[in-house]
Every structure is written in structure tokens, then in C-alpha cells.
Amino acid sequence: MKRTILIYSLAIAAAALVLQWIEYQYTVRVFSTEIYIGLIALLFTSLGVWVGYKLTHRSAAAPFERNAQALEYLGITEREIEVLELLAEGRSNKEIGEELFVSPNTVKTHLAHLYDKLDVSRRTQAIQKARSLNILP
User: Fold this and answer.
1) CATH match for 68-132 among 3.40.50.1390, 2.70.98.10, 1.10.10.10, 2.60.410.10
2) For residues 105 and 63, what is the distance between their CA atoms, to the nearest angstrom?
3) Domain coordinates of the chain in residue numbers?
4) What is the pLDDT confidence band of residue 32, given thresholds at 50, 70 and 90?
5) 52 pLDDT exceeds 80?
6) pTM for this one?
7) Counting Cβ atoms within 10 Å, is residue 133 exposed (0-12), middle (13-18) or buried (19+)?
8) Which of 76, 78, 100, 119 has the highest CB neighbour number within 10 Å of its CB?
9) CA atoms within 13 A on the CB side of 89
10) Dist. CA 76–CA 42, nearest whole Å
11) 83 closest CA partner among 64, 65, 68, 98
12) What is the CB neighbour count within 10 angstroms for residue 110?
């Protein structure tokens, strides 16, 4: 019984293989140009992805280190750094005050000192200058 099942299984597998081969031959003859164009397109797409990856792949950035010399030179305090970090996150004076448990007027005082020390007149300028001095990431 097992032998009969094995023989029939092999015969069916061989027939399926022959039919697949015939279908493959027909497909290759009828669609040969499209197949070659598709293979070439696939090759160039793969090559483009690989080249793009190699050209744009960046190694992991080093962890941010705050410029201690600039902080010391400018005389920026730890509390002013906290205010500056929250300012860079886009927080309002009220939100900064709530986060640091101080009044909005105290935040305004810290910002005024920061503006003087960084020699700027606006929030965006302060953030930009702090980033260029490596005070903020």
C-alpha cells in the first residue's frame, strides 16, 4: 500500500513538474521582453537602494556634551539652563513657571538674564545661539 501511494505521488509530482515547465516555456516565449525589462529594472532598483544606503548611512551620533567653558564664560546658572531647555521645547512662560515651581515673573527675569548673557533679544535667537554654542542639544 505504501509503495502504491509513493508511486502515485511521484507520478503526480512529475506531471506537475512537466506542466509547470511547459507553462514556464510558454511564459518565457510570450513575455520574454517584459521579463528581461523587469529583471533589469529590479537590478537597477536594488543597485540604487544599495548606493543610497551607502551614501547616506551615518554612524550613531556621539552623546551630547554641554559646553562647560561657554557656560562658565557667559555665567549661565543651572536654573537658567533649565529655563533655556524648557524654552527650546516651545513652552510658554506660564508653563515653564509651573514646571519649575516659580512664578511667570521669575521666568521672565531668568529670560531677561539669559538674553543679556547670550546677547540676543528674542526667544528664537536665544535658542539658536545656545545651540551654536553647544549649550543645548
Assistant:
1) 1.10.10.10
2) 34
3) 2-56, 68-132
4) confident
5) yes
6) 0.56
7) middle
8) 76
9) 12
10) 57
11) 98
12) 23
Q: Which long-range contacts does 29-37 make (Cβ < 8 Å, 24+ apart)?
A: none
Mind listing the pLDDT tens digit for each residue in 90-99? 999 999 999 9
Q: What is the mean pLDDT of the chain?
A: 88
Q: What percentage of the chain reaches a pLDDT higher than 70?
A: 100
* Contact between 102 and 60 (Cβ < 8 Å): no
**Which residue is associated with the grid cell 548673557?**
117
pLDDT, position 91: 92
Q: Residue 84 and residue 64: Cα distance in Å, rounded?
A: 16
The region of weakest confidence among 14-23, 73-82, 84-93 is: 14-23
* Cα separation, 91 vs 99, whole angstroms: 10
**Helix residue spans in the chain (DSSP H):** 2-30, 32-56, 68-74, 78-88, 93-100, 104-118, 123-132
Quick one: which of 99, 57, 56 has its CA closest to 79?
Answer: 99
